[in-house]
Each structure stands twice: as structure tokens, then as C-alpha cells.
Amino acid sequence: MTAKITKLTNGHLLKDGQLTLSDLWISSETGKIISPQSAFYGSGSTPDTVIDLKGKIVSPGFIEVQLNGYNGLDFAKLDGGFEQRFAAVRRDLIKSGVTSFTPTMTSSIPEVYQENLPHLGRSTSRIASEGTECLGAHVEGPFLNPERNGIHTKEVLQKAETWSDIEACYGKDNLKHVRYITAAPEQGNMVNLIPQFVSRDIIYSIGHSDATFEQAQEALRAGATMVTHMFNAMRPFGHRDPGILGLLGQNPSRPSTPTQSPKPISPISSPTIKSPSKRPSSPPKPFTLPRRTLSNGSSRTPTPRSSIESQRRSPRSSLSMSTSISSIPDPVPDPPFFGLISDGIHLSPPTLKIAYSAHPSGAILVTDAMPLTGLPDGVYPWTNGENIIKKGSLLTLEKNGRIAGSAISLLDCVNNFIQWTGCGTVDGLRAVTETPARMLGETRKGRLEVGCDADLCVLDQNAEGKLTLRQVWKFGECVHAA
User: A biological process (GO) annotation for this entry (predicted)?
Assistant: First the structure.
């Protein structure tokens, strides 16, 4: 490929918690954001192409961490042409602004995991024309609580007692393709297996669980750092036992109530637009265990340690000289990241606002989109022999009307989230860029910094504040324009 440097000028860049009118230099040779000073003064390079964005918003590419299928392909179903159809999904999905994703496999029999997981591992090439980059698989099940199964088939759910049970399900050699797992920590011996996932750089997410608040805290202490689709398929909030939702109440800082949705940006009168949501100057960082860098440049949280020294430093451990070592309480874990489905079906607007207000820096928007996404409305067969009715973005089981996932785009989730929570454009976009990148330990994704991958979304915003996708860039190349 011939080296090509593109200068995007007159765009509002999403950087440092604000929208700033500035330029962005990207290279299709390296696929990264580059420094204009280094390019010009270091090597005498000038842009091959200059594009005037005329005040449009430039965001990092969207990251989708819960997508069950697309355009008729179910990631958890055996398909003779799976590899080819998955490649087609990636080429099509990027047109929605999703530049990276973790394809989700819902609860299945072991044979399905062992057949499909090798195709869902991390992308090894950096070719823009291949479409959305795969960051590894998300296995949602089968180690779920049958009382909170949602639409997961109860007959395939399992309990894990030993690590051998995990390997027997997914396949020992397939675990390297798994980026994160959703499982119920109260089932079987799962809570004691969490450190083994973490030590293998597999993120553990609490989900489809009937865990009490204490059980959820125990999972966080063991190394869990994420909650799958908060509120859905879990123990309801109670004033004496808040359940998994109570983990968000551990946030040491109390954010101010989000304001109303902001007016659309004005590129001429306001070169720098800060987020209208007043956030703490130093927002809490979810699960602040030390991270180690991997060979691929990403980082993951290692197995948590509960040393006496860290316990003594805990602000909640005010001890007298006579306190015995055995009575030192465990440190209170930091609140986890958490997924929210802002489709207006899974969660009401006030519910979204409550969760976001409790822990804004941990909110991750997901679609939980099903394979029917992109298909016409109608009745379709589901993997358990039942039928699903698709009507717009609403998917329900035909026999009882139970919610069966969504068929919404991630950008629609962002627009809904901004409108319903009043979080503002910056924080709405952050929930599909920087925050999921931090959850996954992707240091080269989710930010518009020099050295980060040049994965971008260029957006318009109308008078009502609604965002519309205009361009998608992958590795420094424009792969979609509307």
C-alpha cells in the first residue's frame, strides 16, 4: 500500500472530555493517528489529502461488546458456511459505525462453542476492507442461573465445579479466543473459578444471575470487573438487598444529577464544547487493580490480591492497635463497568438515568442485538424450537411475549441515551468508545490520541441534538460514507 496521510480539518474532535474544533492527522500506512508535528518536521511529510469536515463531530469508532448475531447469522449456531458469513457480517456491520466488537455466543451445547469459537477470535490482520475488527469472543453462558435465564435455553445451562468443566465446555484450546465471559457467580463453584479466568486474561462479567449483594461483592473481590446488561435477567433491586445493582452504590463520589439534553453544537460560535454533565474532577476508575501489558499492546487486570498491606490502606479499615490481623475486613471493591440496553424496551428512561447517575464512568451502551437485526419484520424460528416475533427493534417470544433481545443499532442507543439521561453528546459517545475500550483493556481503541488506531466515526448533529453517521474510517481509510 502506498503511504497516505490524511488531514481531517475543521472537525469537532472528541478528546479530553470535550468537543474541540481542531485537526486530526491519520495514516493509512500505519492505520494510526499521527502527530502533525512529527510528520511535518520529522520527515517533511505533508498530507496527501485534506478533508474539510465543516464542523462535524469526529468520534472514535464505536465498540460493541454484546452482539449476538447480524443479518440472519447467529454466532451461537452451527452453520456450514459460518466463516464466510461471519466475514460478510463484519463488512456490513462497520457501516453502522461499529469499528470493533466482541461477538457474543449465547448458551449452547459444547459442540457449538468448539466449532464456532475459532472463527470468533481476535482479528490478526489490519485490513480496513475486512470491516469491523473482532476483539475476541464474548461467551454469555452456559454457566447461568436457570431462574434468570431470559431466553437462554434452560436445558443447556451448566454448573462449573472445577476448571476442567470450563475446558470441557469451550474446549481447552479455544479459551485463547475468548475475550470475556458472562456467568452467574453463585452457581456451582464459579466464584472460586473467577481468578482462573482473570489469570488467563479473560474478563469476568456478572450476568443472568440471582446473586445477592454480598455474593456480587464476593465476585468483585475475586476479580469480576463487569456486569452484563444491568437490570435485565438478574435479582430485582430491594431496599434491604440491592442485589447486583447495589455494586454501583459503592462509588465513593456522588455525581451531580445529569442535566437536560444540550443544544446541538455550533462550530462557528463555540470552538470548544465541554460536556454539559458536570462530572467529578477525578472520576472514580472502575476496579483499579494494576494492569499488565500483553504482547498485542492491550492490557488486562491480573488476578486480584488481598494483601494485609492493601487492607490496612483501605479507607474503610480504621483499626485500633488491638485489632487482630484475622479481623481486618476485606477492602470494598470499586464499582464495575456495566452494560445498558437503551432501546426503550429493555429499560425505561428513568432506570437508565438512575444507573448512569450512580456510576457514569462505568456505563457501556450495548445493543444485545439478535441475528434478526437487519432483516424485515416477521416471525422467525429460534434455536430452542420456539418462534421470535420481530417488529421494528422489538423482539419477543411468540408464546409469552417475553423480551428476546433487540434489533437496534448502537448509534440509536446513543441517541436514546443522550435524550433520556441528559448526559450530553460527549458522555453519550464515551459510553460506546472510551469506556468499553477501558473495560476490554484496549489501549489503542476508544480515544483520538497519537498512536491510537485511526478508527473513526464522523457525525452530524441536528437542531434536536440527534446524531447522524456520515463517515466511518478504519485503520486510516474511509470505508463508508453516507
Answer: N-acetylglucosamine catabolic process
